[in-house]
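Q: Two folds, back to back.
A: First:
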Amino acid sequence: MSRPRTADPLAGLPVSGPLRLKPWQRAWVAQQLQTLPPRQRLWRLLVLALADGTPERYQSWVEQGVGGVFVPGAPDAHSARLVGHLQSQARQLGRADLLVAADIEFGEHTGADGLGFPNAMAVAATGRVAWARRMGQAAARAARRCGVNWVLSPVVDLDLNPHNPVVNTRSFGTDPARVAAFSRAFVQGLQGEGLAASAKHWPGDGVDWRDHHLEPSCNSLSREAWLARYAPVWRTAIGAGVRTVLCGHIGLPALDGGLSRPASLSPVLSTEWLRGELGFEGLVLSDATLMAGFSACGPRWQTLPQAVAAGCDMLLFSGQPELDVAYLERALAEGRLTWARVNQALARVLALQCVLGLVRRPRHGASVPQAETKQQVEHQAERAQEQQWARECAAAALTRVRDLDGLLPLQPQRHRRILLVEEGERHTPFGQPLPALRMVELLQAEGFAVTRYRPDTLVDPDLYDVLIYVLAREAGMCRVSLRLDWKRLHGDTARAMERHWHNLPHLLISFGNPYHLADASGCRCWINAYSPVPAMQQACVQALLGRAPWPGRSPVEVGAAMAAWGPLR
């Protein structure tokens, strides 16, 4: 394959915006665009997951010229060591450091470096954008300690459909002004630490009830409604200088000539609208190309190059990267993809590496590494501050939705005998077990006698003083539903139909989905705590005992959602 050249290798690369470069950096990008072999150019457009592979496999990716890698789950010290090894290999080959991405949204599933920060909905419930800024700072610091330089957050979707199981607690809520303000603060906090943020999921999830991990989904709003609700959020994120946007497998027929194709495959949505109308000048990353929202749209040899042609500068995930590169080469040979578009995408990849400091200025030599002891001390101080932030944010988010009978505060003298009902074993979307909730031990430490509900438990006011339901369902991929599962709670089909609202004083605490009242409408006392991270559980117990207030305000319109609950749509 002949080496593709352009008259102006920097054509299309902005001189301002989130990828603006210094003169020496522009010269480096131009040199790379002139000299990189064709196949390496295509490898640079891939972001591959460090999962289910071997160090030798990962090293082969670096040798081929992969542009970025993705750390799955919650990055930690092991991730840092693996990434450090790959970066060292890239440097030995005379290349810039790799882009290293991770989904650090916080909550229980997507933390980093062991930090249990509350999720986006909890942060929004505080009503203070300062917490979103600190959330972004904490995400950046924890990411950097784990070798990550690219955080695929914030979620800027609007939680408009309570049936949607993948947005919900990952969102800053339903109000566009609130979501825009909190998203801007998160981006500023994170990128102020020198990393790249990625607003997601273009053009906006949260309207459909479907999860685009499992099926292509659709933002079915009218043009006018989308412009009124989602456009201000995206304009704000772009105006805040967000360096990258993650393009979802979500259609928007009202802006795409009535077509329901995913934005990841639509040049109208991802080029004409995102870049032309909204003025985004950063890098566009496709959402995972292994998701059914993408794979259901056609054979991979066709859809993968179509995504690049439509406007995606990098492609997330591949089961067979060598084959995917061959698909891109085939599309170039057949004219379905052009080298001009590949070079444009590559220029943005290289520019992102520059603005993140992954390219070293040759004449300045190698940077002097910081002494390990000093770095450890700094990291300990960072962790201590981040943990304090997590505790304070959790306390500020707690929301008492209603307490119709004045049950709270709980007192060991009056409510000593607690019957506690909670779901059994919990797992991440990938099947790994989650830590058991700590509510039993926290209440016992305060002098309560706590009995765990079993399917054969007799619920009797002579045996118990108060009944507490504890639920912990955060949003996540492939969840299908976040609805309250009475059969799982009560143990069998017959007991699933029991309600004890009139037998015992009771309360329901949701460390996740804020809409559970729709499935427990008779519940007289209801607390939304949004996220089951340890800091939130501890803060909740303190508030239950009256030692702290309930300052949070719901970032979703629970009453309106219940009134319009209706069928799936």
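A: Second:
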Amino acid sequence: MERWVADRWTPARAAWVLYGLIAAISCALVLLRPDRLSDLHIYYGAVKSAQSGAPLYAYVAENGGPFTYPPFAALAMWPMTGLSETALQLLWLALTCAAVAALALSVGRALQVPAHRRALAVAAVACAVLLSAPAQSNLRFGQVSVFIVLLALVDAAGLTPARWRGVLVGVAAAIKLTPLLFVVFFLLARRWRDAARAGAAFAACALVAAVLLPGDSWTYWSGTVVQTSRIGDLASLGNQSVHGMLLRIGVAPQTLPLVWAGLVTLVCGTALLRARRLQLDGEPVRATVLVGCATVAASPVSWTHHQLWTVLAAMLLVAAEGALRKAAGVALAVVMTLSLGVLLGEVSTYPGVQFLLENARTLGVVVTCLAGLGGAAALAVSTARRHGRVWLRAVTATAAALACFAVLPLPAGADPTFKAYAQGDTANPRYFYFCRTEAACADAAQTAAATGAVVRFGIVREKTKVRVNGVVDGSVARLEYRSAPGGAPRPIPIVDMFGERGFSFRSANLAAGELTAYAVDGTVLAAYSAELTP
């Protein structure tokens, strides 16, 4: 009996049991959330709306979310309305966990580990990927992204029959456009037939959607496809694309398209060339993951759930030869699992460091694209070894980069620490300290009226940020804060505080900031800059 148990209970099987436990706990936590699977709710509602004859892109869910995918995506999701939404949620969570396991099995071919440890390594990769922020985000929101990544991975990595390769990439691109970059990769790698099949599959799917949903197809391809504002606030930290990082830096709108196009061309061009080399060297899985990372960097919008490619790249680096690449993989895995900007925000005493932490996932995928996962990185390591002191070189380079970020003067409008507080935050005395009682608020309002000031505020300076909290009179219709001259305006909500009108926000520093109060007609009532830095 003991021998039977020992034979059955291998480390790999134990790791898969652990995977099942992580999956069960993750799904249970998702189901306990009041906003669970909100994106799946949008899919479900949009498809039902389209089935009733309503315009697909006119649909807006209760949370304000519209349907943002190509019309073929709605056709692919058409059968889901045959289930109740509750049953669909349970099925979707199970399929998402299964897809993550399939991703681990797919990259298992490229793990540089001894054959007898491969099964354990694949199970460990599955656990690590499921714990990552992108996988957890797919579970939480009920996202389709994990299935798009799986389709592109198994197809582009050559895990499908040769005569069908490229078809799944085309289908994936018809549901979400970013896999179209794989067609460019196929052409560079001289996979002519794969490129043709991918293009044909994409066109066929779009044609089917045009026949079955003609009005929605016209709406999408004639304008909705470029309306990125429908997707959400692209400058928010959740958008870890190069475009999102440039928005947070504060690049002027006039020059943003040119700067973005130049950086994307450099990053994606380098990644595609390195992926071509990996493909020719017989490393199709690594090549595919690298192209996937390029789609994350290139897309104007790369929410957390889109970034599974970066997690897979981290797993390949961890399992690669060479201590330096293993360390890079571990660092990338940590970045893709933890929110460093939140965890280390209280100890990052410089705006540049905070910017680095909050954009770590963008920088991680960019470095991955530029360095590659194979030949170029291995050559760099071997060259450094020949010249000795490889660790000293790596530590020196890292320290120099961090030092640059520590003293980096951020451009106008770049304020990674900025946050404005809303009505739901008023109970927190750390945010709303200027008037904590009805009497204090009334006194502040009376003082403002007596002095003719339309805004009165107090300032609290903390180690890593500055907080501003105050009240406004009835003439103020809106408030805006600019971190620096020429920077983008940040709206400040006006909230109710014991019958008075209050506000609160934080910033990295106020040295070049300006707080402006506007009337209903847009007239500037007051502007405060010197008062912010007494």
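Q: And?
A: Residues 112 and 320 are 5 Å apart (CA to CA).
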